[in-house]
Write a structure and sequence with these properties.
Residues 226-247 are annotated as: Disordered. Keywords: PQQ biosynthesis, Transport. It holds the Pfam family Lactamase_B_2. With 299 residues, the chain is an alpha/beta fold. The chain contains nine helices and 14 strands. Helix 8 (225-228) links the parallel strand 11 and strand 12. The mean pLDDT is 96. The protein binds D-malate, manganese (II) ion and zinc ion (ZN). Residues 10-11, 89-91, 165, 196, 239-240 line the site of D-malate (MLT).
């Protein structure tokens, strides 16, 4: 399978339009540091084509940036109309509105996510006059079931009940936020995409250890980053994102799997957005690296 990394930034992207923090200022000065919202295009290798993992507000530019994702000249004008969602966050779903020119959009997601996108945003009502939305159940990993998308087996590993802020009063559910587990049934290779890890679990550790490549929540470098930079009164984990470093951080928990991990969903306050920051060296010692926009990973 092929993973095309379409973006690696948390909400707002890098730079964020209303922010002049060192990370955003650095990205304005050095265009190579710019990052679009995190998302992937995934190809099964066969004739099954691509699917998107999340549809970000940048989705049209992201598709346009890669020749393999552009439309052909024949009747197939919209080659990418399959979207698998990790959650119902605005930064992972607003791109569905930008895909409205498609004749049909197939969407796979968990039950609470579908509920939020049907009733709270409400994407279904808005998009129905433009295109045909077809909703599919995204089975939970370990249930023995999976969705077959682009020739790949896709399932959801529940991560937390973190609801989008616009749906904060919706009932709790363990699958509001999930990791996507993607398995290529031919070679048996596996990828895991987990852009919002609110808490560590043995199950997550096992899935990471068994995956050939992991795209992991790298929103914040350390627990105090949101408070120190003034973007929130909460800590990183209080905002639903375990930090990379520190005693509760994810980097130290990776063990031997570290070398197969790429951090994504970087917030604009994260020092790792500066390629010269010393944190890159500390991270390299533990194995994981930072994902970059337009990276292609072949498994
Ligand atoms: C998150 O990743 O925590 C969310 O996207 C934040 C938000 O937009 O509320
Ligand atoms: Mn986010
Ligand atoms: Zn900023």
């Amino acid at each position: 399978m092929l993973l095309r990394i379409l973006g690696t930034a948390a909400g707002g992207g890098l730079p964020q339009w209303n922010c002049a923090c060192p990370g955003c200022a650095g990205a304005r000065l050095h265009p190579a540091r710019r990052r679009l919202h995190d998302g992937l295009a995934v190809h099964g290798g066969g004739a099954g084509g691509w699917f998107l993992a999340n549809a970000t507000p940048d989705v049209a530019e992201q598709l346009e940036s890669h020749p393999g994702l552009r439309p052909g000249t024949g009747e197939d004008r919209t080659p990418v109309v399959r979207v698998v969602l990790t959650d119902a966050e605005l930064d992972h779903t607003l791109g569905l509105l930008r895909l409205r020119e498609a004749a049909r959009i197939d969407i796979w997601c968990t039950e609470p996510v579908r509920g939020a996108l049907g009733a709270r945003l409400p994407l279904t009502d808005i998009l129905t006059p433009y295109t045909t939305l077809t909703w599919h159940d995204l089975p939970l990993a370990g249930s023995g079931r999976y969705a077959e998308v682009a020739g790949l087996e896709v399932s959801a590993l529940p991560l937390s009940d973190k609801r989008p802020r616009y749906a904060a009063d919706e009932p709790s559910h363990p699958a509001w936020s999930v990791a996507l587990k993607v398995r290529d049934p031919g070679p048996g290779t596996r990828a895991l995409y987990a852009p919002a890890v609110a808490a560590w679990s043995d199950r997550l550790g096992t899935e990471i250890a068994e995956a050939d490549r992991v795209l992991l929540d790298g929103t914040f470098l350390d627990e105090e980053e949101p408070r120190r930079t003034g973007i929130s009164r909460r800590t990183a984990s209080g905002m639903g994102h375990l930090p990379i470093e520190g005693p509760e951080g994810t980097a130290r928990r990776l063990g031997g799997a570290g070398a197969r991990v790429l951090y994504t969903h970087l917030n604009n306050t994260n020092p790792l957005t500066d390629p010269g920051d010393r944190a890159h060296e500390r991270l390299a010692g533990l194995g994981p690296r930072v994902a970059e926009d337009r990276m292609v990973v072949s498994l």
